[in-house]
Amino acid sequence: AVVSTQSTGPYWAPPMFYPGKCERPRCTMQAMLNAAQDTMNQTINKFKEKGMWNNTLLVYISDNGAPEETYTSNYPLRGYKNSLFEGGIRTPGFLYSVNEEI
């Protein structure tokens, strides 16, 4: 089945972020990651443009877990979004700064 690139729900990204011809639902997830990476790059470049990057602490966190009713998986963690198992509460994230004093 071809995944729609129309804005119809939470799983959507602009067509320019899809990897080639998209015929699998996972292509939408890849497109969403591509769009997030592009947005992050634009944000970092704007901080650099304004001369603010050297005094910035970047905090990046994810949403908690995959929803149970989709094709996604939290394996090897047990549980899904809104559950109390690690698959529903563990959230990846990171902090970054070029300034060691921050």
Describe the structure.
This protein has helices at 26-49, 86-89, and strands at residues 58-61, 93-96. By secondary structure, the chain is α+β, with helices and mostly antiparallel strands. The protein has a two-stranded antiparallel sheet with strand order 1-2. The longest helix has 24 residues, at 26-49. The model has no long low-confidence stretch (mean pLDDT 83).
Write the SSE topology.
Elements: H1 26-49, E1 58-61, H2 86-89, E2 93-96
Radius of gyration: 17 Å
Helix content: 25-40%
N-to-C SSE series?
HEHE
| Largest sheet data | 2 strands, antiparallel
SS-based class: alpha+beta
Low-confidence stretches: none
Number of helices: 2
* Gross geometry: flat
Mean pLDDT: 83
Order of strands, main sheet, comes to 1-2
Total number of beta strands? 2
Measured distance between first and last alpha carbons: 48 Å
How would you summarize this macromolecular structure in one to three sentences?
The protein is an alpha+beta fold. It has 2 helices and 2 strands.
Please tag this protein with its features.
102 residues, alpha+beta, two-stranded antiparallel sheet, 2 helices, 2 strands
